[in-house]
Fold these 4 entries.
Entry 1:
Amino acid sequence: MPEKQLKIESNPPSDKTKVRLDAWVTAISSAGVLFLTAHFLYSFGVFVKPLIDNFGWSRAAVSGIASIRNLTTALTSPIAGTLSDKYGARRLILVGIVLCGLGYLLASRATSLWQLYLFLGVLVGICNGITFSPIIATVTRWFGGKSALANGVASSGISISQIVLPPVATFLIAWRSWEIAFIILGGAAWVLGTLSWSFIKNPPAAARQPQKPEAARGKPEVSPLFVKDYTLAEAMGTPTFWFLFFIYVFNAVNFQMVVVHIVVDAVGAGAAAGAAALILTIIGITNTVGRLGISGLADRIGGRIVLALCMILQAGILYVLGRANDLGTFYIAGAVYGILYGSVQPIVPALSGDYFGTRNMGAIFGMLNAAYMGGAALGPLLAGYVFDITGGYYLAFVITASLAAVAFVLCLLLRRPERKAASV
């Protein structure tokens, strides 16, 4: 009997180490999948001119491909999240990888605009919807309430793609053609994306159990007012959900306005086109730093505190960018903005999992991601409209700085929703 007891006590540490290793392997592998499938938003810009030159389509018509992709992703995310909660994320992620590769390969043979709308707008849009939300939900389940850093690692695949994929796609187009570039991107998604996917694991059942908040852990005498797993409908019935919803929307509006218009804004201020384009590379690098660095701080001192600091600092930096009239200011302010934006991205899903539990994380975060995509579509349109009216971007930056300030107030209002659990 004593020997058996000794064996039982010696097993948990090794099991715990294996679970920890599986969790981090899943986060890193998820970054690989997102790097290979979610780069459309950053790499598509280099295809716009070649497509216009080849087919003679208008800029608006070609840009519509990106708009359809964003809309498709927004519509797909909540559905994908719900399906991942019910059937598991791995199958959905694999389907997404297949659709991404297929979309790019078919696009290489496109001869009309509607085909690109279908292949890149719809197929790649569905891919992004059924990969990102399930991936973030899975990683959050693995790490529970301390998932900000892990989510940062997983989502860093997207920010790293902002650094790597545009120059790679540009090289492939110059080396051969846009058709060859699409074929290589699609093939890479299939081969390397599937390889990365093979290391992703669904979390054990214990990781999906409801968690007590700090005040109730280890204190059975405390009244059972703790967070059990919320359904999507229940979460949407709380102010907390809507605070996170609009924080995520405002962050998306601001970021997409910046990445779409900051280069032309810098050129209008007198910068050379090549030097201005470097701003996006800087933002991509610091975006990654924010996801990997500041998100880890959120796990230590609390996501709500770090989120609030990022949003109020973001408001100040956006105002500075609106006043920028020299390249040095664009570089420095852009670098700081990249850190602040990147830090917010993994904290929102981490807080969502902490506040609402992780059993229905896919559906809940899928709805938040749909909100993000809506904000992503609004940001560039807002800035373009302001420029058409005023002849400059200053007012657009003032508006987005104000949105960041509102998000800061919402961060201060965030509270864990508590209710009596159905059973203890």
Entry 2:
Amino acid sequence: MMLEGKVAMITGAGAGIGVEIAKRYVAEGAKICITGRNQGRLDKTVSMLAPGTAITCAGDVSNLEDAKKMVEATVAFGGKIDVLVNNAAIDPGGSVVDLDPDVWHAVIETNLTGPFYTMKFAIPYMIKNGGGSIINISSLASVRCIPTMAPYCASKAGLNHLTNQVALDFGKHGVRAVSVLPGPVRTEMSEHSLGGMADVMGCDMDGVFQKLTCTIPLERVSHPREIAGLVAFLGSDDASFITAETILVDGGASMVDPCGASLKMSGASGWGAEMR
């Protein structure tokens, strides 16, 4: 029960990683307010949780008034806000040449401006209460570019830096801020994004994820609950001296370079003349 007595707000909690974070937070003793654009999805998440542990507040984090409403609903429910988890995100792709400017703005507004808004309103409550924890769900794509995913990669890279800025500016008030960078995670969003690859690769979605992860050390895709465990720890007092960090949860994917990946895919066990 590492989060017993804490009150948290979790955005994007109607699907994927957000659902697992909500479940883990309640299991660890927290009261939570979950937010998202789809009330039906939020209700489904709450139905998985113990009665009285969670409320919903539907809205769009990219809307200033909605973000304010979410934070105020959290405080009204729990009397304070100890933890803010910014998980809401969208990931339509495109290169800078092909991308519709409206799509660019939509991704930046949701993935970067949304956390700015929620932090803007949550931090004063945290300061009043003596501190708090902010966990921003970024991505491996913030440090490793993905082909034709310009807005997503840029928004997540910006989120890392914004997180560190918050840690710098408000650490003296007891507010911690950390970026969590998942690698390949099997969620509804990732399956939708990668759906076209199944046809190109001539396989089903299991095959797509297998091929995408065959060169990383753990050789598998992760489950959202594997992200949730870290997020729960970071919101707890056990992480009280961790701030301004970008923490990778990627099965080791970030350390694989093209040469190493090519060697592994070819079946080679080493490098150099002795391998000929």
Entry 3:
Amino acid sequence: MGLVYTEITLKNADDKMMAKKGYIKEEDVRTKTTTAMVDTGAWTLVINEAIRQELGLDVCGKEPGRLADGQMVSLEMAGPLEIWWKDRSFLMPALVAPNATDILLGAIPLEALDLVVDPRNETLVGRHGDQVIHKI
């Protein structure tokens, strides 16, 4: 199986709340559509500093992380943000790897969005087809 990439949309969740309350216009919600590498070995969503700044995400703490070369580092968490894949969304913070070239879509958002990797077709699919299943 090769690398799997998918298109996702990231939205500043604080902006969405401000728009919902009428403080800003819906079109002013900071949003970024980008290609993410599906990484089942990563535990969360990983973005770079440029995307954090573009979306205006606040740093909300630090978490330990292991880079692909095995090096342990302390990375900032930023958010909150909404991750959208087609008609599915999930609200969470993201790890910020300052110079990352790839956005990583890890295990927690994959599970929350009810997505699985189809290795034969090297694509991402809904676990239950296109129907959105919300766990209770």
Entry 4:
Amino acid sequence: MEMPSMADLYKEFGSQGLAMVAVSSEDVDTVRDYAASTRYPFTILVDPEDVLSQRLGINAIPTTFIVDKQGQLVYQHVGGNDWNSSGVREQIRGLLANE
């Protein structure tokens, strides 16, 4: 449900350095069909063995991590998020300005 607002965020800030990757543990065909029907402007990867979730200790979906250019975790959120909110956009603007 949050993917459309993620796409909006990426469209606004992608040219300013924001990189975004979505990772799904669903089967490849399901993800491929979904990605083809929606055409999101960011990368969607498939992790059918759920290796990434296990390594990162993710126990709820969706879980979001924001990592700065130095590779430091600067934000973690469990659950859906409205990426169109002014608070989130200000946070992203600040991160991009500081990097």
